[in-house]
């Protein structure tokens, strides 16, 4: 329906034009072709934002059958494959985009993202190294930080994370990633600060809340941090804190936290009940 509306409006414009100019001066076929291109661009945008990314994958695959060299269609397919979490398929799709003459540096960054999602870390680094240093985008630095993390190049990772945080208005997830990097290195206080910062930026980010409890637990601090939580989230965080206590050898504290988690959860908390039963020898 959307497509027919665009084409109908376009044809009306062509007919209006033909009414006030000699026919010899108007190339009707060329005019209609231009209208179709404009309409298709709108349709591409619609599918890129579609709620079901697999529908977008099907659309771009169909479109590429009739016009396989169109970079915008190849880019749309690669983007939709990532959205659909079909990362293995997305890698060759982005490689085809990057091979095009009119490919951009951002396309290389997107290829690196797809490679990271498929654990091709060396290839991702090679692709990022080929991106000009003048490309200073949030996505580029976020990926550079993740790759540096994978290579345990902590100094570069910290530098890239810091730059990425400064290039976005929504840094919570990057701060969470940075905090997790600090946690894996054993810098528990540094991790705790970053997780707290992430939660201040986005109080709904449960992963950061759970990681914050882990960082505190590693320092044998098992009290829950003063962050906004639902009843269910509080129970889950108590469970995490309990397991941290048990891991540190504070079994009695862990049992108490498990009992509190079971009592707090709005439904039956099977994982916590099973852990408590195990600790009590049941």
UniProtKB/TrEMBL annotation:
Pfam families: TPR_16 (PF13432)
Protein name (Swiss-Prot/TrEMBL): Flp pilus assembly protein TadD, contains TPR repeats
Domain of life, source organism: Bacteria
InterPro entries hit by this protein: TPR-like_helical_dom_sf, TPR_rpt
Signal peptide as annotated in the record: 1-21
Segments annotated as TPR repeats: 37-70
UniProt KW Signal keyword: yes
Keyword entries, A-Z: Signal, TPR repeat
């Amino acid at each position: 329906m959307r497509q027919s509306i665009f084409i109908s409006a376009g044809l009306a414009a062509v007919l209006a034009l033909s009414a006030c100019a000699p026919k010899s001066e108007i190339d009707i076929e060329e005019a209609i072709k231009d209208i179709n291109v404009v309409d298709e661009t709108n349709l591409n945008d619609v599918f890129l934002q579609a709620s079901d990314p697999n529908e977008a994958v099907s659309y771009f695959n169909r479109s590429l059958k009739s016009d396989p060299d169109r970079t915008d269609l190849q880019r749309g397919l690669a983007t939709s494959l990532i959205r659909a979490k079909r990362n293995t398929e997305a890698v060759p799709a982005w490689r085809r985009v990057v091979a095009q003459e009119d490919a951009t540096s951002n396309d290389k960054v997107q290829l690196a993202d797809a490679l990271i999602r498929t654990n091709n870390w060396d290839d991702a680094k090679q692709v990022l190294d080929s991106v000009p240093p003048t490309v200073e985008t949030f996505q580029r630095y976020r990926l550079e930080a993740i790759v540096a993390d994978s290579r345990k190049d902590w100094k570069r990772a910290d530098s890239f994370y810091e730059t990425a945080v400064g290039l976005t208005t929504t840094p919570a997830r990057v701060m969470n990633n940075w905090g997790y990097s600090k946690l894996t290195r054993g810098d528990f206080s540094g991790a705790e600060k970053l997780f707290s910062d992430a939660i201040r930026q986005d109080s709904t980010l449960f992963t950061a809340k759970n990681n914050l409890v882990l960082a505190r637990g590693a320092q044998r601090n098992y009290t829950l941090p003063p962050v906004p939580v639902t009843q269910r989230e509080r129970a889950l965080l108590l469970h995490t804190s309990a397991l941290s206590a048990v891991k540190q050898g504070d079994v009695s504290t862990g049992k108490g936290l498990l009992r509190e988690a079971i009592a707090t959860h709005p439904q039956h908390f099977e994982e916590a009940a099973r852990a408590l039963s195990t600790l009590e020898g049941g």
